[in-house]
Amino acid sequence: MGSERRNERQPTINDVARVAGVSKKTVSRVINRSPLLKDDTRQKVESVIAELGYVPNPQARALALRRNFLLGLLHDNPNAQTVLNFQIGVLDAIRDTNFALVVRPVNRHSPNMLDDIRDFLEKQRLYGVFILPPISENEELAALCRELDCAYVRMGSTQLDSPQYLVESNDREIVASAVDHLVEMGHRRIGLIEGPEGFRSAFERREGFLDGIRRHGLEYRAEWHAPGQYTFDSGIEAAERILSLPDRPSAIFVSNDEMAAASMHVARNKGLLVPDDLSIIGFDDSPIASHIWPPLTTVRWPIREMASVAAHKLIDSEDADQLPSRLPSQLIRRSSVAPPREK
Amino acid sequence: MGSERRNERQPTINDVARVAGVSKKTVSRVINRSPLLKDDTRQKVESVIAELGYVPNPQARALALRRNFLLGLLHDNPNAQTVLNFQIGVLDAIRDTNFALVVRPVNRHSPNMLDDIRDFLEKQRLYGVFILPPISENEELAALCRELDCAYVRMGSTQLDSPQYLVESNDREIVASAVDHLVEMGHRRIGLIEGPEGFRSAFERREGFLDGIRRHGLEYRAEWHAPGQYTFDSGIEAAERILSLPDRPSAIFVSNDEMAAASMHVARNKGLLVPDDLSIIGFDDSPIASHIWPPLTTVRWPIREMASVAAHKLIDSEDADQLPSRLPSQLIRRSSVAPPREK
DNA sequence: CACAACTAGGAAACCGGTGTCATAATGAAG
DNA sequence: CTTCATTATGACACCGGTTTCCTAGTTGTG
């Protein structure tokens, strides 16, 4: 069953110091790559470290340095794949550091969300936290982080805070260019299924849509514009509303992929072929986008890259202002857009 | 902007002791609920703690106790929703403790996965780790945890380890009863799309399928049995194979929901109505199961409950053997199963 | 009332690192 | 060959808790 060492105590810095015949401060200097060490001392200590398999105790370091090496992720699961990709992105960034990522799913509908988070931050004394949308839009939460002296980065779709505390994408521009894409394909009658009120992302996507409409001088029709909740069910309802119209649009932009998938079902039930009778563009590039038929043209956030940048902002905070705050999304063209059938 | 206290040092146990006029050991006793304290002492100290807003430093405790309060989650993203639900389940279990959950996505195809994990475990000195399938099936990984003296719980679909290190579900039985369900509906010609070779879950699900077939004396036909990789694309291929047969089955059990969704597409493309011409049962109850049409009958792992049990096994390890190791899955009946059209 | 037995609380060392500052070793200059 | 800088290293206190062990106070018993 492999080499067991259950009862052997982990070697400490004192063990290394004793075996190497130096003081523990010297060992500490080796670990921390202090420049003022003679090469042969360094090598001697390093070989002892290797021989003993010594690994510094992170808790002791945290105590002595008065800061730990834990990054937190606060999120209210907007989308499982996004959260997971974010975790992976952070991991990529901290792989060769001593940092670790601790997660904290929260419930934004709970009245004591802020108390829960306060409790969490106080107990764990995190080095910093990432805040994912939609709770990244919560100003009280940001204030709480400042109060508790916890570094933070808010992820979002628009400028929520000063750049060093923020990593955002360009929802508004990319949605406008999604409209461009529809127009290029020949559409002039374009509908919108919107995200829930109060969500910054929903607002940005709507504004981007309207920018696009205006840019091309297209007709805006209130009845082609339905509210949604970013859920599949709300998408069904919204699509029913728009597609039952006698004079329906030839394309719709839907503010997330779940609602876009729902719209496809509604279209199919009404005997409309996607994309021939109805073109659809979604948003998120969630797994469902490529698992429905036809595969959905959608917008992809560069979530892993955003996570990495955010991690660097927390860790190397001195050059946080050198890092970009805004990473562009991308329109992923699949098969849910085609030229309109008639005209 | 709320009350700032950026430059105020966090109060320590010494501050509390001084203000309360007791020794720090007494404060420590209050925190740790020692029974041998006079009530008025306890109350005095507690009121000082509240007044100062004192919160014990977890790193200092970890150092003194020679164990920390970090639980790790090792996974290779089999399914984002599952991983996230697992995280939430763990959080529920540790909400009122001092534990936190640190995540570590890994790549099981990377040749240095084990080294990465070793590095992680050594650096972080976790209290214990959860290992999600499929890497929970890796014996070398379990051996590594034992070697590093890190408690672990392996999640799985079958007995991988002794019960105190394991939380599993009953894939085999539940799949057999999914077959029962199909038989009750009148099916006698049932196909199988299998998971990838080498996956314990794939094996269990196949065996459960075969149990069900045998139990009802149904015909086993090799051409109704196709391999898959748990991916959408592999599901397309497998379903093509089975549904192109002149003499195709009237129902199929598909080893996960992604492949089941793929099978629905194939069926539709071939002009087969689900469920009238073809009944389908999936496995996982992933979001896609309720977002496709018709909604998929599938098997749901009680993943949050499993996560909670697993957390208790790690934390209260003394009574780990009292906790259940096996939590039953559930067949979620939706609309992808109906009696076969013609006898 | 003397003495044990038990209780509540404190002093000091310790966990395993890091910071500060003093000192030994080295090299350069006079 | 001193003397002074400069560099490399060590001694020791400290981070903020816990453990061990001891003392003083309280209660019970003969």
Description:
The structure is a homodimer of 343-residue chains. The first copy, chain A, is of the alpha/beta class. In chain A, strands 2-1-3-4-5-11 form a 6-stranded parallel beta sheet, with helices on both faces. A 4-stranded parallel beta sheet of chain A has the order 7-6-8-9, sandwiched between helices. A two-stranded antiparallel ribbon of chain A has the order 10-12. The first copy, chain A, has 13 helices and 12 strands. Chain A has helices at 13-20, 24-31, 39-52, 58-65, 80-94, 113-124, 139-147, 171-184, 200-215, 232-243, 257-269, 287-291, 303-315, and strands at residues 70-75, 100-105, 128-131, 151-156, 166-169, 190-194, 225-227, 251-254, 279-281, 298-300, 326-327, 330-332. Helix content of chain A is 43%, strand content 14%. At the A-B interface, α4, α5, β2, α6 and α7 of A face α4, α5, β2, α6 and α7 of B.
Low-confidence stretches of chain A: 1-6
The total number of structural domains of chain A is 3
Question: Looking at the structure, what is the overall shape of chain A?
Answer: elongated
Strand content of chain A: 5-15%
Write the CATH fold name of the largest domain in chain A: Rossmann fold
Oligomer: homodimer
> Within the largest sheet of chain A, what's the order of strands?
2-1-3-4-5-11
Supply the helix-strand structural class of chain A.
alpha/beta
The number of distinct helices of chain A, counting runs of at least 4 residues, comes to: 13
Q: Whole-number radius of gyration of chain A?
A: 26 Å
Main β-sheet of chain A: number of strands, strand sense, barrel status? 6 strands, parallel
Number of strands of chain A: 12
| Average pLDDT metric of chain A | 93
Helix content class of chain A = 40-55%
CATH class category name of the largest domain in chain A: Alpha Beta
The arrangement of helices and strands of chain A along the chain is HHHHEHEHEHEEHEHEHEHEHEHEE
CATH architecture assignment of the largest domain in chain A: 3-Layer(aba) Sandwich
